[in-house]
């Protein structure tokens, strides 16, 4: 919300001086037009940008950076920087959907749509067992991931209702849902097939996935067939936050120390950080970097490079630099500690009315 200072204008109040004052109270049309134009330009320059409309797609379970990413998402929404259409699971594990629901409920958005694959896909639990604690300790209504609607139907319904080239899709998990979306047929939700619907409605796709210039990364590898089909068939711009980006950004220690005692986000990190020796200096923030750039853009945090993602059947990837390529990757610019501070500040965000 913009706050404008009210300025009182002196009236032309004295009748004997009225004629003399007319020129100052009513400047020539061209001068008035110039002033109005200048004011309009100033207002436009200082106006806050429109919130980024997005659909968030997460595996929410094998690791716990997803929890930090969801916290950031709600922080952005509360700040007016993002508008969340849905939080979708790409993980078939029974607690993935309920864990998302816990976080949405805590941040005051219990009615956000949640979808899940109805096809074959990846089913992985949280190795640190934090999802069991979330579901047991915090309010939610979704009982199991299988009870969520079909993710493809959620995507199609929401995309069809939005303006053209307006929706950012953010994936921080497997690409099962996006492969299924591209393959979807016209239906009562939209007369367009999936690829045409994406081409019409999506602005960009931000992917936490891949390793650059080459490697094998978890999100891409676990459903490698879906990954290859989705990446090669996606008709809109794609931005990748590779594993080498998030691995340098360590977060969680400040959250555990300073976070609200009743926060499920803090609770997850407090459970999980002691689980592995490598996390005692903070957990790698793969998913959070994708959310950060999806909402705020790469600058000033990262540089970018255009090219083409080379998806291989075994889930590994290569990268071909090309200034005219359809894909973009993040390249380190800001010091990782500075990026971590920005991310963790967002992860510490609390809703106005947190659940007890």
* Number of discrete helical segments: 15
- Average pLDDT works out at 88
CATH topology-level name:
Inosine-uridine Nucleoside N-ribohydrolase, Chain A
Compute the CA-based radius of gyration.
Answer: 24 Å
> CATH-wise, what's the superfamily?
Ribonucleoside hydrolase-like
Helix fraction bin: 40-55%
Spatial sequence of strands, sheet with the most strands: 2-1-3-4-6-11-9-10-5
Alpha-carbon distance between the termini? 29 Å
Query: How many strand segments?
Result: 11
Proportion in β-strands: 15-25%
- Tally of domains: 1
Specify the CATH class. Alpha Beta
- Which architecture per CATH? Alpha-Beta Complex
Determine the structural class based on helices, strands and strand pairing: alpha/beta
Q: Any idea what the shape is?
A: globular
Please mark out the parts with pLDDT under 50 across 5 or more consecutive residues, or reply none.
1-45
Order of helices and strands: HHEHEHHHEHHEEHHEHEHHEHEEEH
How many strands, what sense, and barrel or not for the largest sheet? Answer: 9 strands, mixed
């Amino acid at each position: 919300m913009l706050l404008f200072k009210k300025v009182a204008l002196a009236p032309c109040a004295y009748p004997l001086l009225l004629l003399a004052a007319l020129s100052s109270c009513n400047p020539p049309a061209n001068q008035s037009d110039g002033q109005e134009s200048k004011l309009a330009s100033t207002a436009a320059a200082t106006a806050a940008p429109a919130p980024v409309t997005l659909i968030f797609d997460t595996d929410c379970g094998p690791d716990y950076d997803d929890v930090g990413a969801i916290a950031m998402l709600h922080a952005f929404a509360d700040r007016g920087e993002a508008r969340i259409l849905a939080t979708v699971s790409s993980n078939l594990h029974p607690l993935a959907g309920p864990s998302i629901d816990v976080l949405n409920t805590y941040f005051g958005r219990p009615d956000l749509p949640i979808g899940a694959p109805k096809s074959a896909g990846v089913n992985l639990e949280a190795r640190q067992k934090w999802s069991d604690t979330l579901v047991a300790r915090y309010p939610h209504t979704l009982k199991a991931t299988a009870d969520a609607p079909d993710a493809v139907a959620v995507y199609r319904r929401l995309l069809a209702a939005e303006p053209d080239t307006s929706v950012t899709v953010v994936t921080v998990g497997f690409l099962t849902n996006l492969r299924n979306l591209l393959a979807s047929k016209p239906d009562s939700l939209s007369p367009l097939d999936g690829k045409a619907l994406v081409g019409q409605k999506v602005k960009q796709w931000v992917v936490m996935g891949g390793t650059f210039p080459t490697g094998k990364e978890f999100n891409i590898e676990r459903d490698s067939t879906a990954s290859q089909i989705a990446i090669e068939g996606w008709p809109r711009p794609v931005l990748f936050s590779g594993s080498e980006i998030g691995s340098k950004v360590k977060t969680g220690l400040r959250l555990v120390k300073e976070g609200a005692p009743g926060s499920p986000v803090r609770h997850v990190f407090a459970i999980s950080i002691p689980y592995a020796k490598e996390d005692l200096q903070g957990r790698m923030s793969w998913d959070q970097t994708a959310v950060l750039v999806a909402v705020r853009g790469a600058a000033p945090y990262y540089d970018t490079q255009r090219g083409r993602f080379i998806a291989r059947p075994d889930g590994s990837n290569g990268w071909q630099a090309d200034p005219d390529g359809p894909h973009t990757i993040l390249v380190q610019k800001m010091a990782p500690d500075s990026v971590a501070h920005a991310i963790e500040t967002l992860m510490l965000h609390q809703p106005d009315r947190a659940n007890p």
